[in-house]
Amino acid sequence: MAAWYQIDIMRSMPNVHVRELPPGTIETLKQAARRHRRSLNAELVDALVEHARQIEQQETLLERLEAVRRDWRAAYPEGFPPGETPEETIRRDRERDDL
User: Fold this and answer.
1) Which end of the chain, N or C, is less surrounded by CB atoms within 10 Å?
2) Mean of the pLDDT values across residues 7-36?
3) The dihedral of CA 33, 39, 40, 45: what is its sign?
4) Is residue 84 part of a domain?
């Protein structure tokens, strides 16, 4: 790989400076990096990328759940089954399971 290409990539990548990590955190991350046979930097990048991916998945799931709630409320404005409280629905389902 050409040196100019590597330098260009390094310039386009944002950097982060982390302060005040709890004691032992760096050593734990170093051990994980050794287990995965990569540098501490690569371990940190992987951990941050994975955490960001999980956050995106959670946000997507929450958005989908809210859309389902809106659709449900629009379809059943008086509850489901209509006129029945959640407690009544739960009680009915428990009684059915007891049979």
Assistant:
1) C
2) 84
3) negative
4) yes
